[in-house]
Design goal:
Blueprint (H helix, E strand, L loop, with lengths): L16 E4 L19 E4 L3 H14 L3 E4 L14 E4 L6 E3 L4 E5 L4 H9 L3 E2 L10 H7 L6 H4 L6 E8 L4 E5 L4 H7 L8 E9 L1 E2 L2 E9 L5 H8 L7 E8 L2 E8 L3 H15 L5 E8 H7 L11 E7 L5 H9 L6 E6 L21 E7 L5 H10 L18 H6 L3 H11 L12
Parallel strand pairs: 1-2, 2-4, 3-4
Antiparallel strand pairs: 5-6, 6-10, 7-11, 8-9, 8-10, 12-14, 12-15, 13-14, 13-17, 16-18, 17-18
Helix pairs in contact: 6-7
The chain binds flavin-adenine dinucleotide.
C-alpha cells in the first residue's frame, strides 16, 4: 500500500495531521496538531506501516523522526518533518524462558503491568508514560538498576527498520555491532526499532522508601558518600527543593538491613530518622507512587551531568543557596550493577559514575545554567543520552565518551545518507 493523500482531507497538510496507516482505506485523518508541530504524524501499527512511512518520507524528502512515548526532552522533529508514531506497536508477550518481546510503542506502565502478570519484570525508569524504546535506546536508569543494571543491559535482541528500509533482527550473534549501538547511544540514530526483546528477572517484592526533611542540612554530602556505595539491593535517590528534601527509592534487602542502612545515612547527616518504609510491595506497584513526589508541574528545563566524586562543600552551598521557587536538584545513585559492565561492552559509556545530578527549573530561569556551570566544574563531563541538553559544548564526548569513534563509524555504515538526523545526532 502506498501512502497517498489524494482522497484525503489531509491533502498537502501544512500543519500536523495524523494519518493512520492501517485504517481501512489506507489513511484516515486524525486530529490536527499545532502550528509548531511536525507537518505530519504517521501512525503505524505494523512493521510494514513503518517501511511505508519511511518510503513516503524518502519520496517527499521530508525528515523522519520515530516517536515512542514522546517524552524526549527536546523536539527532534523539524516543523516540516514527519513523525513516525509507534503507539500501535505495543504488544507484550513473555515466553517460557522469561524473554519478553515488547512492541516499540509500549509505555512503561503497560510494560510493568504485563510483566507483573507473569511474575516478571525488567529494571527500568519511573514515568508510567515513558516509552520503552526511547528509554532503552539511551540506557534506562531506575530503582532496580543498581541490582540488575540499565534497561538496555537486559536487552537480548531487537527488530529494526534500517535507513535503506530493510528489516533486520539484531542480537549478540546477529548484526552484533548494531545491537551494541542500540544499547545506550540514544534513540533515533540508526533506524526505527519496532520490537525489543528483554531477558526479564523475577519481579521482587520491595520495601518502599520515602523520607522528608524541611531542609537539606548535611543530607546532600552524606547522601553522596553513602548512596552510590550502598548494597546493590538498595536504591535511594534524593531531591532538594525549597522547604523540602525527599529521599525515595526501594530495597530488595531484608527490612532490618534496609532500616540499618537508612539509619546510617541519617546519622551521617545528623538528621532525624524521618523515613517511612512500606514492606512487601510488588516492584511494579512501587514505581507509579513516586510520580506524586514530583510537585513541579508544567514545562521545565533540565540540565544534568554525571559525577564520579562528591561535590565540594563550596559548590554544594552555592547550589543550595539559590534554591528557590520551582528550582530543584535531583540526585540519582549509580554504582552497583551499572558499574559491572565494561564501558566498551555496550554503547552506554558511563559505567564508573557515582551519581547523576539534574538541575531542574522553569524554562526561562537562568539559575538552571548557573547551577549547572557551578556543578560542572567538579563533574565528569559526561551526560546521560536520555537527558539531551542542547547547550552542551561537546555533545559527542559528553554523551558517548570513548565509544564515540565506534558509534560514528557505525552511523556511517548503517545510515550513510543521514536519513535519521537531528541536532546532536551521531
Ligand atoms: C516524566 C519523565 C520521567 C522519566 N523517568 C526516567 C527514568 O526514571 N529513568 C530514565 O532513565 N529516564 C527517564 N526519563 C527520560 C527518558 O528516558 C527519555 O526522555 C526517553 O528518551 C523517553 O523515551 P520516549 O520513547 O518516551 O520518548 P520519544 O520522544 O518518543 O523518544 C526519545 C528518542 O528516541 C527516539 N525513538 C523513540 N522510539 C524509537 C524507536 N522505536 N526506534 C528508534 N528511535 C526511537 C526518538 O526519535 C527520540 O529521539 C524520564 C522522562 C520523563 C519526561
Amino acid at each position: 500500500m502506498r501512502v497517498s493523500f489524494k482522497n484525503s482531507s489531509a491533502a498537502k497538510p501544512s500543519v500536523s495531521s495524523v494519518i493512520d496507516l492501517t485504517s481501512q482505506d489506507g489513511f484516515s485523518p486524525g486530529s490536527p496538531g499545532t502550528e509548531a508541530g511536525p507537518r505530519l504524524v504517521l501512525r503505524c501499527r505494523s512493521v510494514s506501516d513503518v517501511v511505508q512511512a519511511m518510503a513516503y518520507a524518502a519520496e517527499t524528502g521530508a525528515r523522519i523522526v520515530p516517536r515512542g512515548g514522546g517524552h524526549c526532552f527536546v523536539n527532534r522533529c523539524p516543523a516540516d518533518g514527519i513523525v513516525v508514531e509507534l503507539s500501535g506497536l505495543d504488544r507484550i508477550t513473555v515466553d517460557d524462558t522469561g524473554v519478553a518481546t515488547i512492541g516499540a510503542g509500549a509505555r512503561l506502565g503497560a510494560v510493568y503491568a504485563a510483566l507483573h502478570g507473569e511474575g516478571r519484570t525488567i529494571p527500568a525508569g519511573c514515568g508510567d508514560t515513558v516509552g520503552i524504546a526511547g528509554l532503552t535506546l539511551g540506557g534506562g536508569i531506575g530503582i532496580l538498576g543498581r541490582q540488575y543494571g540499565l534497561t538496555c543491559d537486559r536487552l537480548v535482541g531487537a527488530q529494526v527498520v534500517l535507513a535503506d528500509r530493510s528489516v533486520v533482527e539484531c542480537g549478540e550473534h546477529r548484526e552484533s555491532e548494531l545491537f551494541w549501538a542500540l544499547r545506550g547511544a540514544g534513540g533515533g540514530q540508526f533506524g526505527i526499532v519496532t520490537e525489543l526483546r528483554f531477558a526479564t528477572v523475577p519481579e521482587p517484592s520491595v520495601c518502599r522508601i520515602e523520607g522528608h526533611w524541611p531542609a537539606p542540612q548535611n543530607l546532600v554530602p552524606a547522601w553522596q558518600d553513602w548512596a552510590p556505595d550502598a548494597p546493590d539491593g538498595l536504591t535511594a535517590n534524593l531531591t532538594v527543593q525549597t522547604g523540602r528534601t525527599t529521599l525515595f527509592g526501594a530495597s530488595t534487602l531484608p527490612p532490618a538491613e534496609t532500616e540499618e542502612l537508612l539509619r546510617e545515612l541519617t546519622a551521617r547527616a545528623g538528621v532525624l530518622y524521618a523515613i517511612d518504609l512500606r514492606l512487601d510491595v510488588p516492584y511494579s506497584m512501587v514505581k507509579p507512587t513516586f510520580s506524586v513526589l514530583d510537585p513541579v508541574g508544567g514545562s521545565r528545563r533540565v540540565r544534568s551531568e554525571f559525577f564520579s566524586r562528591t561535590l565540594s562543600d563550596r559548590t554544594t552551598s552555592q547550589l543550595l543557596d539559590q534554591l528557590t521557587g520551582n528550582r530543584r536538584l535531583a540526585f540519582t545513585a549509580m554504582g552497583g550493577a551499572y558499574h559491572r559492565v565494561a564501558e566498551e561492552a555496550t554503547a552506554f559509556a558511563h559505567r564508573g559514575e557515582r551519581f547523576l545530578l539534574e538541575q531542574v527549573g522553569d524554562p526561562g530561569d537562568p539559575w538552571v545554567d548557573e547551577a549547572w556551570r557551578a556543578a560542572h566544574a567538579e563533574g565528569s563531563g559526561r551526560v546521560y543520552p536520555n537527558f539531551p541538553d542542547l547547550a552542551l559544548e561537546d555533545p559527542a564526548r559528553a554523551y558517548h565518551a570513548d565509544n564515540y569513534p565506534r558509534l560514528a563509524a557505525l552511523k556511517n555504515r548503517y545510515d550513510p545518507l543521514r536519513v535519521f538526523d537531528f541536532p546532536q545526532a551521531l
